[in-house]
Amino acid sequence: MALDRWIALILLGICLVYGYTAWFTMDAGLAPFMKRNPIWPSTFPKVLSILGIVACLIILSGVEKSEVKIAEIDYRRLHEYKLGQALLLLALMVAYALCLRPVGFLPSTTAFLFLGAFILGERKWVLMLSVAVIATMIVWYLVQQVLGIYMRPLPGFFGG
Amino acid sequence: MLEGLLIGLQTAMSFQNLAMVIAGCLIGTFIGMLPGLGPMSIIAIMIPIAISMGDPSAALILLAGVYYGAIFGGSTSSILLNAPGVAGTVASSFDGYPMAQQGRAGKALTIAAVCSFAGGTIGAILLMIFAPMLSSVALLFHSAEYFALMVVGLSAIAAFAGTGQVAKAMIMTVFGLILATVGEGALFSLPRFTGGVMDLQSGFGFITLAMAMFALPEALFLVLKPKDAGSVEADITDLRITRVEARSIAPIIGRQSVQGFFIGVLPGAGATIASFLGYAVERNLATKEEQAEFGKGSITGLAAPETANNAACTGSFVPLLTLGIPGSGTTALLLGALVAQTSRLGHG
């Protein structure tokens, strides 16, 4: 099955769950006075779910014929690419986002830059550490001190 | 009217105000290049400086310079990194980034600069001529008219979609709208599809989504399939545009300055819709051969959104200056800064 059909199948699943929520569960907690309105909070989602399901079915049924284009990344040759590095980097991004608040900006950003360089194949430890620390300090100084946007620098138990 | 224009020109040409224009545009351009920091954040940062200046004209000139600079700066990161710094420059990346990949980054930046300047300047002339008339039209727009405008904007997907791609374009539009319904609805203030997660109460941030759609895949592509990193920088020196290219973008500048300006006048519409509509209109007006080039590094495809977004920025000043009604978050901040300077906007 072509990649666009796989994507359409995944989106169909999302649209079905979305549609089920819009049609059957969203209106349960609606206040009685709101039910007198012609437009409910679920009205637009209901329309969207139907539109989404119809569009997915059109792609899945293959009604619309389109020319096959070779994308920049060919999914059939994924094994030839550096997939492990990309997945590790994605995992690191998620971990960084989750750590930013509890661990604080300075340690989490330094660790993110250091580990990111490590995943990408850099092995000059002193250089990696210096770049990570300097870049983090510059960004933190610019954002917090110059722009005045508060970012907790250190973990809470350090008084950050 | 002529007397007023001459007084305005005299004020604008003073040394202090010219310095403010240069400073504002430079600051806006540099900060606008950073993905995630749009004109709103930059103006918010500049407000204390503008207020402390004590001169409303200089403050307005500085903030307007920052506004235009930020929109132009956003296009630089769109073209070079495929990471739009501002929502209004997303459409610029459709053709600007392919141009950079083909080693024509310098040319793309020049076209962006020329079109932004031309769009902003023609917009300023239109502002002088039409501001009083347009302010009354802008007020006639209510929910139904905005809904119609949004339908037109979304139906522009047909212009982006190639042959046999309409269903795919439609499903991605619907998926975008599905994501937009997450969070508190504007009409009822009830949380929708949040799953009880507090962070989702305010929905998905536009910049977050833009970064996830444009910048993240680009970073992952580079990891998956490393390229020669020096290729883009090597060709950035070639900034010239040929006479043929200049001739082909001239009519686009004319059309999109006018269209972008009138879209910008409508409160809430702004640079984003103007740039997407500009791209769609120019794609539809192009010949079959030119249409095939759209999305692959067409200079027409870059010139249209770049002109339209800057003209729309000027258009957004119409309701602000004539009625004292801000049409967007950015102009609301400008209004705040000007009110703090005790400027009298609108009819007083």
Approximate helicity band of chain A = 55-70%
Estimate the helix proportion of chain B, in percent: over 70%
* Binned strand content of chain B: under 5%
Order of helices and strands of chain A: HHHHH
The first-to-last residue Cα distance of chain A is 52 Å
How many discrete structural domains of chain A?
2
Radius of gyration of chain B, in Å, reads: 20 Å
Q: What's the tally of helices of chain B?
A: 17
Strand content of chain A: under 5%
Features of this protein?
heterodimer, A: 160 residues, mainly alpha, 2 domains, 0% strand, flat, B: 348 residues
Notes on the protein architecture:
The complex is a heterodimer of chains A (160) and B (348). Chain A has helices at 3-25, 43-61, 83-103, 105-119, 125-146. Chain A is an all-alpha fold. The model of chain A has no long low-confidence stretch (mean pLDDT 84). Chain B starts with a helix and ends in an 8-residue tail after the last helix. Classes of the chains: A mainly alpha (160), B mainly alpha (348).
What's the topology here?
The complex is a heterodimer of chains A (160) and B (348).
Chain A: H1 3-25, H2 43-61, H3 83-103, H4 105-119, H5 125-146
Helix pairs in contact in A: 1-2, 3-4, 4-5
Chain B: H1 2-12, H2 15-32, H3 39-53, H4 56-81, H5 90-101, H6 105-139, H7 143-155, H8 157-160, H9 166-180, E1 183-184, E2 191-192, H10 206-224, H11 230-234, H12 243-265, H13 270-285, H14 288-293, H15 299-315, H16 317-323, H17 329-340
Antiparallel strand pairs in B: 1-2
